[in-house]
Amino acid sequence: MADLAESTAKLQLDEETGEMVSKAELKKRQKKREKAKAKEAARSEVKNDEKVKPAPKPKANAEEPAIDPNYMFKTGFLDEVFKIRPIKPVFTRFPPEPNGFLHIGHAKAIAINFGFARFHGGQCYLRYDDTNPEAEEQIYFDAILEMVEWLGFKPYKITYSSDNFQRLYDLAEKLIGLEKAYVCHCSDTEIKLQRGGEKGTAGPRYRCKHAEQSVEENLKKFRDMRDGHYKPQEAFLRMKQDITDGNPQMWDLAAYRVLNKPHYRTGDTWKIYPTYDFTHCLCDSFEGITHSLCTTEFVQSRVSYEWLNKTLGVYEPMQREYGRLSISGTVLSKRKILKLVQEKIVRGWNDPRLYTLIGIKRRGVPPGAILEFINELGVTTANSIIEIKRFDQAIRKYLERTVPRLMLVLDPIPVVIEDADDLDGTTITLPFSPKDPKMGSHDVKFTKTVYIDRSDFREEADPAFFRLAPGKTVGLLQVPYPIKAVSFTKDDATGKVTEIRAVFDKETKKPKAYIQWVSTEAAGSRKAEVRIYNSLFKSDNPNDAPGGFLSDINPESEIIFPNALIESGFDEVKRRAPWPEAAGESELGKGGPESVRFQAMRIAYFALDSDSTDDHIILNRIVALKEDVGKS
After folding, report:
1. Is 97 known to be catalytic?
2. Do 539 and 546 form a contact (C-beta atoms < 8 A)?
3. Annotated catalytic residue within 180, 192, 220, 334
4. 324 flagged as catalytic
């Protein structure tokens, strides 16, 4: 036992190869790599006959400095926005429609609005823009708040546009009294003609005859709308703006429409409901919003936003627009995701392959990784369409420094080490991270029978294959002696290897490769179902795929290993979750099953799935390891 502990303590992990080597050997390798990098850098800088200075040697395992978490507020667009209106206290708002689940693009809106207010010592409202009773459900209200809190933000107040229905109605009557609104009965076709046709260029713009109605007539008709005397589309209130303006948002927009639909919160009280263009700016005004931050699709709306507040003589917030965030290689449309759910292509709106926030959360992506990713992208007026692999790389970089490491075997084969009787049942202490001692360590029992992954064994030796094969030696991570395969048994029916016999190879000091292993269940290891998630679609743009996005489904988007084994350290990782303590998972026990995250050495990063039970562990792959690419 003493020899085992002493030998293990002398070995260190080579991060580039996955091998366990002596301290002296690791130092030698690092110096060799530094020299190779310096030479390559020098060669790439040679121009003409200039004398090239040697490239500086990089520090081994140097930690990449974390970006300032407030970077996007200190520089660029958001810094300029505050300088335009440098007033405090700052009040912002996040105003989602409660008619669907939020996606990755909304994470940027949450981070900007809540983060901007927090950076400047202010507050941010969560306001549900619930003016369309045809699509609103409680499940969406709840999911929106859950995602805001998961990202680490607390609303100053939770408000509803519907709280202001009476106040908005009164202001609509005031607008009519100012001769700045009228009740219109035109059809959609007639309105398009009034606005110059489909593109606004087919002819001169003009107002319909209803714009000439008196204040009294408009008030009577508007009250008749309120009292249910009109059916939907028979009448609607239009703002009397400037039909000659070059901006379509000034072409007498709708302010109220008739909807015979009970509202989730107000019931049958109202037969008419205000539009976004009428509601949004006024609710901003009611709440004293200083900086109304929205995406660039509302650039043209800024003119009508300012016109309405100014016309009614109410407090005027400042609207500014930033570029929205989207992800290529997937779909974010509510209609298309609903189709995926209905066709049972995915497990639900929270399927780990989707880029809804509840899906990203279930996959195990930490909220802190999302915030860091958005911060690193920065905020400009340009829309950002990010490749999935770039998003994955940001998550991988975050997980690399924040989660513990464990050993996991996806497709286990038992290896009986025939001469391991002396070590059977002994304890090996393993660090949770070779880079961060603060993560601590845990003990696992070494057993005479261990399990390795089927992919780490070949029935015939191959000079290019450095793992286990008959007569070949491979190292077991953190075990002092490598093993050599001496025989194996196969199932006659399936042709699969069912057992490998091996012995310790104490003569080989430095095996060419090391592999992970797991002890028997009797020693504390646990069975697990492992779900490997890949891209849901085959192409980078499923929306343009021949036959539509449903014809672009990747048949290998979910690969399940039902009989995986994970080492006993998993129980300690679960007990100490969340990993890491950040954003909405800021303290011990604060976080769902997805906060149980770890790196499975040589495989990928994983998190516990919400379907897991104490007796049935289910793990989701968050992202692959960078080292997986091209590994022999």
Report:
1. yes
2. no
3. 334
4. yes
Which residue's structure tokens are 């891209």? 535
Supply the pTM of this predicted model: 0.86
Query: Residue 187 phi/psi, 5° resolution?
Result: -85, 170
Which run of H or E residues covers position 363? helix 357-363
Pairwise CA distance, residues 199 & 209, whole Å: 22
Strand partners, 605: 599, 623
Q: Are strands 526-533 and 617-624 parallel, antiparallel or unpaired?
A: parallel
Residue tagged active-site, from 25, 34, 97, 627: 97
Catalytic annotation, pick one of 324, 339, 448, 527: 324
Cα Rg for the chain, rounded, in angstroms? 31
Measure the CA–CA gap between 610 and 593, rounded to whole angstroms.
6
pLDDT in tens, 222-234: 999 999 999 999 9
| Per-residue pLDDT reduced to its tens digit, 239-267 | 999 999 999 999 999 999 999 999 999 99
Q: From CA 247, how far away is CA 245, in angstroms rounded?
A: 5
Residue keyed to tokens 């405090």: 88
Which 3 state secondary structure label does DSSP give 537?
Answer: strand
Question: 441-446: long-range contacts (C-beta < 8 A, 24 or more apart)?
Answer: 442/568, 442/569, 442/572, 444/407, 444/519, 444/523, 444/524, 444/567, 444/568, 444/569, 445/519, 445/523, 445/524, 445/568, 446/4, 446/420, 446/479, 446/519, 446/523
Q: Is 334 a catalytic residue?
A: yes
* HSE-up (13 A, CA, CB side) for residue 109: 24
Best CA proximity match to 209, nearest among 199, 217, 198: 217
